[in-house]
Amino acid sequence: MGKNSEPRAEMTKRVKNVKLEIILLNVAIILIGVLMVVFPEQSQTIICRVVGILLCAWGLFLMISYFARSKLEVLGSFALVQGVALAGFGVYILLKPEFLAAVLTIVLAIILLAGGAMKLQYAMDFMRLKLTAWWTELIGAVCMIVLGIVAIADPFKAATTLMIFLGISLLLDGVWDLVSILVLSTKLKAFRKNVNAVMNEVTTDNNPVV
Predict the structure, then answer these.
(1) What is the mean pLDDT of the chain?
(2) Which of 87-101, 112-126, 130-144, 188-202 has the lowest mean pLDDT?
(3) Cα–Cα distance list, 11 to 4, 20, 38, 52 (Å)
(4) How many C-beta atoms surround the C-beta of residue 110 within 10 A?
(5) Which phi and psi angles does 182 have, rounded to 5°?
(6) DSSP 133
(7) Around Cβ 172, how many Cβ atoms within 10 Å?
(8) What is the pLDDT of residues 30-45, one digit of tens each?
(9) Could you state, in order of their start, the residue ranges of all structural domains in the chain?
(10) Count of CB atoms within 10 A of residue 7's CB?
(11) What's the CA gap between 166 and 150, in Å, rounded?
(12) Contact at 8 Å (CB) between 111 and 169?
């Protein structure tokens, strides 16, 4: 019993770490969206610096989490390599922000498309868990993919308008993902409780008290 529970505990801890990383990523996306809406004209310079700082912080977080993990957790983990790469890329952007500024709108549009793909995954997960609201996640996926395509096509006449459009889109993307993660996490906890209750019932029935 003890030996079987140890790998399960390690797996649970790893899932929690991944969940935390996804939450932090979406919080960063929301912050970038707010900056683009509030400061559309200066957004490129501000975002490049903010992205550089966030990448450095994220990379440092991954490196610290790597050394804080147990020996079993680090097996198959690339947190150290990812952390060094992200921190290095963040430093490069801080030193040369023009590198990111030249492709910023394309990068943000790709983030929207990736957000749409992630929502499509959530929709499939919700459907397999037989949640009645899975179709709302599918609608969100389609909306984000459409917004990403519009951003790439850039039908706007002014660069400021494109920045505001991207900012609002990123806000919607980040908030939607955070809500989806919380809903999925809550449903999975309820599902695990039901499974454990059934297993305990079966165990009790198979081992009657003499």
Answers:
(1) 79
(2) 188-202
(3) 11, 14, 41, 31
(4) 14
(5) -65, -40
(6) T
(7) 18
(8) 888 898 888 888 878 8
(9) 2-191
(10) 10
(11) 10
(12) no
Q: What is the dihedral of CA 26, 32, 36, 37, to 10 degrees?
A: 50
Query: How far apart, in whole angstroms, are the C-alpha atoms of residue 109 and residue 147?
Result: 8
List the alpha helices (DSSP H) in the chain: 2-38, 43-68, 71-74, 79-95, 97-101, 104-128, 134-153, 159-206
Distance from C-alpha of 75 to C-alpha of 150, rounded to nearest angstrom: 42
Give the per-residue pLDDT at 105. Answer: 84
pTM of the model: 0.67
pLDDT on residue 41: 80
Pair of tokens at residue 162? 């494109």
Model confidence at 134, pLDDT cuts 50, 70, 90, reads: confident
Tokens of 39: 């400061």
Half-sphere exposure of 145 (CA within 13 A, CB side): 11
